[in-house]
């Protein structure tokens, strides 16, 4: 499991961890019933406290992404199709916001941007 934590980020480490594990599950890089690293092992890997990792795992469990079995560890649950769609919509929105920022910086008008998007959609979707 590849997790990259930015220790100098304004986003708390547990949130970074939750978001990355959610993405791995929704992208199906982590599959149903796959075990997650133990709290201690992951804490050591990302150079964070075990309490931080435990907090992230607890949140993931509350949101229905993982289940923890006492003495056995934490495991990925089946992907909820609605959650997967929401995650894709959210990431698409973030990417579009970046595109809009770049367009503004480049002096591209709203009309030009809409025209460009319509043209791309026409080519892609027919």
UniProtKB/TrEMBL annotation:
In its keyword annotation, does this UniProt entry include Transcription?
yes
Its keywords, alphabetically, are: DNA-binding, Transcription, Transcription regulation
Q: Which GO terms describe its molecular function?
A: DNA binding; DNA-binding transcription factor activity
- Transmembrane region positions? none
Which intervals hold domain HTH gntR-type?
11-79
Record-linked InterPro entries = Tscrpt_reg_HTH_GntR, WH-like_DNA-bd_sf, WH_DNA-bd_sf
Q: Which protein is depicted?
A: GntR family transcriptional regulator
